[in-house]
């Protein structure tokens, strides 16, 4: 059975498969420090979030043209559509690409071209979310955000990602208030490796509409009660949590307790090329591990649309 799903936590650059990294490197005349796809794949063993991010940022250097962005967006959407995705809210890291000399327009127009083609071909709808790096100064995020707003780039919302520990959400208060004032949606990674208090800051200071990961809320019963009361969407990525050792094993993942508590949880793939699979793989892994019922799976699928930024009419028509 394939349930219709909304994918709300997917980093475009995290869908870059090793084969594509080699193909783009060769096309763009870039020397990779690996002899083969197998040698590259052998590096996909991570101890924590940072050990993954180091490789993730190095690999995305093969993206050099607007066409490259279109190509990887299309490749991702082909794969996502096959796993039941009917709506996608796609993250990308503008700072990474601007740092390499691409313009915001080149990046966004390439991604948008891929998104629009998939909507025409399959009816897969989309939103595009620019994620700012929390390891970089807030001033860098603000500079790009102002460019997005003043040059009217086709962006639906902003997010906050990258290294979490030591970079509390409150550093980005101004960035998020500027985004909200200009009608952009706001989400943030919080409580992936970082403490429950970072989730509280994302709610109180950044005023996010959705929390990415959020699993560490389970350390704080008062926060759980609040998230349940507010029906705050949490985009949980089980295979990511295992591969980045946010949990010891899949059996230790708090998903069953989160569902039991009444949290508005949905399942997502994060960086599928790095963490062992796309949305379908994430769902089958937890369905098997925790013997989820059809009713649990339907709740998770419904939550994915209810947590999305589709308007009510569009949401109902997809469910
Ligand atoms: C990310 Cl898993 C994860 N966490 C934080 N930032 C990220 N960027 C890409 N994947
Ligand atoms: Zn993420």
UniProtKB/TrEMBL annotation:
<dbReference type="InterPro" id="IPR028892">
    <property type="entry name" value="ADE"/>
</dbReference>
<dbReference type="InterPro" id="IPR001365">
    <property type="entry name" value="A_deaminase_dom"/>
</dbReference>
<keyword id="KW-0378">Hydrolase</keyword>
<dbReference type="Pfam" id="PF00962">
    <property type="entry name" value="A_deaminase"/>
</dbReference>
<feature type="active site" description="Proton donor">
    <location>
        <position position="192"/>
    </location>
</feature>
<feature type="domain" description="Adenosine deaminase">
    <location>
        <begin position="4"/>
        <end position="319"/>
    </location>
</feature>
<dbReference type="GO" id="GO:0016787">
    <property type="term" value="F:hydrolase activity"/>
</dbReference>
<comment type="similarity">
    <text>Belongs to the metallo-dependent hydrolases superfamily. Adenosine and AMP deaminases family. Adenine deaminase type 2 subfamily.</text>
</comment>
<feature type="binding site">
    <location>
        <position position="271"/>
    </location>
    <ligand>
        <name>substrate</name>
    </ligand>
</feature>
<keyword id="KW-0862">Zinc</keyword>
<feature type="site" description="Important for catalytic activity">
    <location>
        <position position="213"/>
    </location>
</feature>
<feature type="binding site">
    <location>
        <position position="270"/>
    </location>
    <ligand>
        <name>Zn(2+)</name>
    </ligand>
</feature>
<feature type="binding site">
    <location>
        <position position="189"/>
    </location>
    <ligand>
        <name>Zn(2+)</name>
    </ligand>
</feature>
<comment type="function">
    <text>Catalyzes the hydrolytic deamination of adenine to hypoxanthine. Plays an important role in the purine salvage pathway and in nitrogen catabolism.</text>
</comment>
<protein>
    <recommendedName>
        <fullName>Adenine deaminase</fullName>
        <ecNumber>3.5.4.2</ecNumber>
    </recommendedName>
</protein>
<feature type="binding site">
    <location>
        <position position="9"/>
    </location>
    <ligand>
        <name>Zn(2+)</name>
    </ligand>
</feature>
<keyword id="KW-0479">Metal-binding</keyword>
<dbReference type="InterPro" id="IPR006330">
    <property type="entry name" value="Ado/ade_deaminase"/>
</dbReference>
<keyword id="KW-0546">Nucleotide metabolism</keyword>
<dbReference type="InterPro" id="IPR032466">
    <property type="entry name" value="Metal_Hydrolase"/>
</dbReference>
<feature type="binding site">
    <location>
        <position position="11"/>
    </location>
    <ligand>
        <name>Zn(2+)</name>
    </ligand>
</feature>
